[in-house]
Amino acid sequence: EQIATLVDPRALEVSFRLSTAQYARLVDAGGNLTRAGVTVRLAVSGVDLVANGQIDRESAEVGDGLTGRLLFARLDDAPGFRPGDFVTVEIREPALDDVALLPAA
Description:
There is one protein chain. The chain has one helix at residues 20-24, and strands at 13-18, 37-44, 47-58, 69-75, 88-92. It has a five-stranded antiparallel beta sheet with strand order 1-4-3-2-5. The chain is mainly β. It is built from one helix and five strands, in the order E-H-E-E-E-E. The protein has one domain (13-92). Helices cover 5% and strands 36% of the residues.
């Protein structure tokens, strides 16, 4: 029987799912997940709470009926955030070289 849940508000992380194509952009030539930086936003009554962090790890399996990859990012300092908050995650990806932006139509 569980009698309590302990949460350290100074050691929060966020989980988020990426498509396989998005995940591929975060993997280096050796197949290792890069430790890209993230910005996490929580919208509260018209004001955004913001926390920064770093991708820490990925799930060991995809899961039945799911696609893409589940990643986890450790948050550096996240005042006002709580487990279970619905947030937006922005990933700071490395710049792409030798690419061009083309119009869709």
